[in-house]
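Quick one, T. Sequence first:
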Amino acid sequence: MERIRTFISIDVEDENILCELEGVQSLLIKSGADLKLVRRENIHLTLRFLGEIPISIVNNVGRMMDKLNFSSFVMEVKGLGAFPKITRPNVIWVGVGEGHDEVVNIFNFLERELRKLGFRPETKSFHPHITIARVRRRRNLERIIDVFNNYRDYVFGRMDVKSIRLKRSVLTPRGPIYSTLKEVFLA
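Structure tokens:
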């Protein structure tokens, strides 16, 4: 049975926000830290990673997404942070200001409905974020602390969230390639 790697996301397509994010990515790279940047076309907020699932389940997930009954909203892309923490980053992200509650409500809906389809509950608490870089090796990380401090409360922009997408992720040596399997528009 063929399986595909999938996730549900809010895609970031606002050109101004993408330019702002590329600017901070550039500063992070100039620091000399060993980072793998997320490519512009792959920048998104993951609502739920589903993993490798059978194609037969993809249709069920799509039908479940049709039940999304949320209004479109404004999402403010704000602040720079890291997991697990700024002094020991593995993942560098930008956060969500305005629109945070709406994103969490959509996540909670998806989580409930995915359990009904047999998905295991998410084990980590949900913290809405957009990954912009991953740390490859712990080199020159102290140099990026200034970037974190300068962008801690920075507003990268505001975007209208009008849809949620089910995405396919194909892993390649050059990085993942994403494609949209289903898009559900918000009211």
